[in-house]
Please model this.
Amino acid sequence: EIVLTQSPGALSLSPGERATLSCRASQSVSRNYLAWFQQRPGQAPRRLIYGASNRATGIPDRFSGSGSGTDFTLTISRLEPEDFAVYYCQQYGSSPITFGQGTRLEI
Amino acid sequence: QVQLQQWGAGLLKPSETLSLTCAVFGGSFSGYQWTWIRQSPGKGLEWIGEIHHSGSTNYNPSLKSRVTISVDTSKNQFSLKLSSVTAADTAVYYCARGSWVVRGVVITNLDYWGQGALVTVSS
Model:
């Protein structure tokens, strides 16, 4: 099983600032099948990025993903108030599918 | 627009069987893996397993002995059963549209989710 470790566990920033979230895999993620999700309180997760760097439909271009192999990054270029939420990475290259433990982005 | 609507019993006693169903509206039901994921209170996300529209399944080894996922293609529905539940199974359970694989390449994954259902196990 691939273990995904996200850092930091929590990140305090202000609107307008840049956020950089990290996800490290215990072994290489096949074909960079790595996704990022945003979860707001009381809501289901929403997919932001798939294939490490592809923005999902309807996702603003301030969200970008990068990385390959075992190290991946989600960057939010200019934080908007609605971006403060919990973010999860997820690998779907090997079974079982696994998620990181999440990064809480706080104002 | 694809929508997933889920339902099932929300309160169980220890040793009972959890049962949830997810209906898919819009889009194609064929070709996709249909997935169950859970989230324990205040914790992260755990993949439970998936079923292809053809009926083939894949389960998380940590739950495999207790999980059954089934599909009813005539209704565009899939279901989750988790037996012998304990308090540790208390969680919000989500259904989601999983992978669509074309010639060995995963085109998309977990792009649509149900609204979630809180299942509480308590005596």
